Amino acid sequence: MRKSLVLAVLLITACPAVLAGEVQDRVVRSAVVLREIMDIPEKGIPKELLNKCTCVAVIPSLKKGGFIFGASYGKGVMSCRINKGTGPWSAPSMTLLTGGSFGLQIGGQAVDLVLLVMNLSGLESLLDSKFSLGGDASVAAGPVGRTAAAETDAWMTAKILAYSRARGLFAGLAVKGGVIRPDKDANHVLYGKEIPARSLLLYRTDAVPRDVKIFMDELEKQSPRKTP
């Protein structure tokens, strides 16, 4: 009985530390994914589209299967431009993605997923407690390459552009379903208190934890401020 009690106490004590480590690792991996994709010669996300977008979400190692049978599951990071999409990048909000079909390969292959929210309408959908990709917000496979943005009007009609990377291959991604919602537990661990995702993504946060600044810094490096 005593051993069981001690084990329970140790597990309770360790859980916050484990979750904090997972959140920090998630932020770092998201920043690395964004940097590597933007650095792909001639075939990355067009810089013009990144400059025009309102929010960026990165979900590294999105997996098929997992605890949701026959579905997809991933944890990621999201940041938006404050001041109605015209200002600097916001403090990140942790996100969860469940369900849907993301073109994953048979055998549970994981992909890195990047979503560009292109307009304020997409942002409003995003700020709901949860929203459906392709349902609440229209999603299109994003064009790739330096000149692709000038050759397509996808960003003018879709609220969200989707990209994926798997086994070294990078391309726009057709998304069917899937629900994104805030990861409230991870945000609580990260910021030390309950902060709604809406507050994080729309307004300047005074004290940004050092653990998430790497993602903001990478966004700022790739797209310092939204162009007119």
Instruction: Sketch the major β-sheet.
Output: 9 strands, mixed
Structural class: alpha+beta
- Pick out the low-confidence regions: 3-15, 66-70
Q: How far do the termini sit from each other?
A: 66 Å
Mean pLDDT: 76
The H/E string reads: HHEEHEEHEEHEEEHHH
Oligomer: single chain
In what range is the share of β-strand residues?
15-25%
What share of the residues lie within helices? 25-40%
Task: Using the CA coordinates, give the radius of gyration.
Answer: 18 Å
Shape: globular
Per DSSP, the total helix count is: 8
User: What's the count of strands?
Assistant: 9
Quick tags:
228 residues; nine-stranded mixed sheet; 8 helices; disordered N terminus
Brief rundown of the structure:
With 228 residues, the chain is an alpha+beta fold. Helices cover 37% and strands 23% of the residues.
Task: Give an account of the 3D structure.
There is one protein chain. This protein is of the alpha+beta class and 228 residues long. It contains eight helices and nine strands. Strands 1, 2, 3, 4, 5, 6, 7, 8 and 9 form a nine-stranded mixed sheet that branches. A hairpin with a 2-residue loop joins strand 7 and strand 8. The longest helix has 37 residues. The radius of gyration is 18 Å and the shape is globular.
SSE layout and pairings?
Blueprint lengths: L1 H37 L8 H6 L2 E10 L7 E9 L1 H4 L7 E6 L12 E7 L2 H7 L4 E2 L6 E3 L12 H4 L2 E7 L2 E4 L6 E4 L1 H8 L5 H6 L7 H13 L6
Parallel strand pairs: 6-7
Antiparallel strand pairs: 1-2, 1-4, 2-3, 3-9, 4-7, 5-9, 7-8
